[in-house]
User: Fold these one by one.
Assistant:
Number 1:
Amino acid sequence: MNLKKRLILANALTVIIPMIITALIALAVLFVFGKLSISDISFKNYQRLTEIKFELINSEASILQRKPEVVEEESFQKHLQEQLAGINGELIIIKQEEVIFASRNLSKIDVAKCLEAGNDKGRSEPVLIGEVSYSVELIDLRFEDGALGTVLLLAPIDRSVANLTNFLVLIGVLFVLTFMLSNIAVSYQFSRSIIKPLHNLQRAAAEISRGNLDHPIVEEGDQEIRALCRDLELMRVKLQDSVYTQLKYEDNRKMLISSISHDLKTPVTSIKGYVEGILDGIANTPDKRERYLKTISFKAHQVDQMIDDLLLYAKLDLNQIPFDFERTDIEEYLKLCLLESEPELESSHIQISFHNELHQKQQYVLLDRERMKRVIMNILDNSRKYMNKDAGEIKILLRDTATSLIIELRDNGSGISERDLPHIFDRFYRSDAARSKGSGLGLAIAKQIIEGHEGKIWAKSHGEEGTSIMISLSKS
């Protein structure tokens, strides 16, 4: 439920609940009074009470519209008596504490009770005269001679009619009380449904401010508050991922510095050693100096290659190298790559072959030809470095699925252990036994380039029978 609907419902309940409770209690009172015959509280009695009040008001208006002396006139007294006769009412006129007219014989005590009831405006109980209960209206007059006078209008009223007035007052008070109580209860429940989720949000925010990003934010409350909780939870998760990524980058940076230091130190140390050998006169023959200089040149080229690989990986990692994609016949492209690599592989006694298993003769894919060539060369160079067979062999198999092309480069070299297999595409990762072979960035660069083509690359180990590097690319 959203806040708008909840607010409308809360406002409606604060009115509906008191009305229902008041109606039920009123019905219960009517039922009990009816069964016990205490009084007849009915619409008929209410109508009778209204008629009586109306006649009294009319009679009072008749007196007030005339001069005070007119009440002493017999004709006017008769007129008032006739007005009250319709309700069996009585009329008493008093001047200077003496009764100058009474529509019926009343004792001084009865007159005194009527005066007391008339002066007590807040009194709700009727005056009992004989066996009849009367409602009293009192009108004060001042005659021209300065004498004070009083007109008492008496209207007969049943006990049940009087009880009806009390009943209506009771119902009104009951409605006000139930309205107040239901308003408090509904407001408490309404505020609780908002305050509790907000309190939990405040606690979660405090945990985040203290650096605890593992405290989840639970979705609860109304629709708007749940949306707020969902957005804050998403923010927490992203912040947690950001912190994790930052820590990972920090670890990678440390590992990068350590790996660069280690990888560059080995060839640089060799270069220094050979240079010192030449300077110290150890290379004292032309052949020995030539061998030393060739070694120095090779090691310098190795350092240069490491630096180039590192710069290329950094640019790929930061997406700073744009890809130039071309629609390319994949079979023709792979054959050109093989022709370029074949001489170097043959010099290492490695035979390379190509196998086309495509369902159609020609299949096209979007490639950055130069970047993809770097991938193929890196994989072939890796296979050459780790070849441990006298008759080395590399097979390139090309096949397809409904939506993608699969390139498999399989060798019969030393294979990859199950422990190393998940990590071979990580930068600078190499098994300890082969620590000195290359920069450790070849397969990491290949992975970055393949992902730049929105493809996938993975490895399969065949144990002692070699390794397969698998590349999946979307068809064009």
Number 2:
Amino acid sequence: MKRVHVYVSGRVQGVFFRSEMQRNATKLNLAGWVRNREDGLVEALLEGEDGDVDKMIVWCHQGPPAARVDHLDVIEEPYTGNLHGFRISYS
């Protein structure tokens, strides 16, 4: 099992990045959240099976069709198993 914190920069806000990420993460049975940040980044926390988390990271390199991903930071963290479902955070 794997847990990663992801930071995506580029044209990633206003292009359905969060909703498409939620849709894909749910299909992969990942837990966590995604949110827009005031600095223009999209930030996400993902937990799940190693291979499924890796698939989501691959998706993040491109994002939805209208997005342009310039940079992706992925930080591995200790798996906790305390996340349930995948949601869009508005905080």
Number 3:
Amino acid sequence: MPPAADCAHRPKALVAMSGGVDSSVAALLLQKDGYDCIGATMKLRRDEPPDGAGNRTCCTADDAADARSAAFRLGMEHYVFNMAEDFDRRVVEPFVRTYEAGRTPNPCIECNRWLKFGLLLDRARTLGCDAVATGHYARVQRRADGRWLLCKGADPGKDQSYVLYMLTQEQLAHTRFPLGELTKERVRRIAEEAGLLNARKTDSQDICFVPDGDYAAFIRRYTGKDYPAGDFVDESGKVLGRHKGLIGYTVGQRRGLGVAADRPLYVRAKRTEDNTIVLAGGERLFSRRLLARNINLIPFDKLDRPLRCGARIRYSQTEQPATVTQTGPDELEVVFDRPQRAVTAGQAVVLYDGDLVLGGGTIWETEDM
């Protein structure tokens, strides 16, 4: 055991442990890097997923047990924090209201914004920790002038920077991503070598509170409301069929429309004002321009001039060349060099300069090509 004076100067981290291999290895690597670590599992839901869904989601009782097992193996304290009320208020309710407004939300971004790097950071401070650590595949760096930067994870197949663009300078200063330089397979090998039981545990894939992927059914259960059917129409207003409620559809959707036509039709727009869904051919899904709000810029406080960069409008997309202009205190205009398919209001647009994350915002409206 090191002398007490040395212990007093050891950094301390609260590690968000989901029960998966990534967060467990993050804790292990931080320990090897000289940190005293405490494990923390967030209880986000009041219920359990349906039978058969547990292997595809997270935040279950089994996941908490896996996290506790990993923490015990690593000789760490472990806490379970009940954040179900905050999760409902900050993530689930906005998810539902956004769908009701005709947009398509990204709840994982809001969970990161308010819980993992918000409330959990507050808990870390209460416990005397210097930082919060997670198993995200991303990197935090510090510029010579002291400004904190967010960069992509080194493994392009696992990079998770898209869902972290909203991190502030204060949050980045107290965040650690130990897996940022690693591949997923390397992480699993480290877990196996350390004897962690979750080394080959399947990654969660679905939104944790909608494990079966049926968003419309979840929203109906959550609100107790019935969302009325309405008309599918073409761009001229001609009725093509009936939809089962606006909440059941998203821009770009083709499957499950139940409309007979002589060509493939896609959801082009959802109109809450008259409860109609506009269908069109695939060529009508492209937009060159979007406006984003609720913006966050990382390497700078504001854009003083138009900026050339890459932009993603969905998690798995490769960055697309664009020109970005700040048009207000909380608004960005993004104009792509080439029209982009199915730009969806409610999703995030995230800006990049190579591996550097410049920031982003919530897509608010789009303009056709």
Number 4:
Amino acid sequence: MGAIERNGYRFEPEYSVINQKGALHVYQNGQFMEEITFSFNGEQPEPEQIEEMVNGYFDKRNEE
């Protein structure tokens, strides 16, 4: 699962199968902005789960 680039942001997922936890690192123009943590089941997070978090990030920013 690779990075997602959208609207000048880069989202880099990382995860631990043993702990069933992951993080989505958010960068804007190469600068780290924040880390979004999550949990998942199975061998890796579902791509749809990552996509929903990216969409949610932009939804949240639009509300501010």
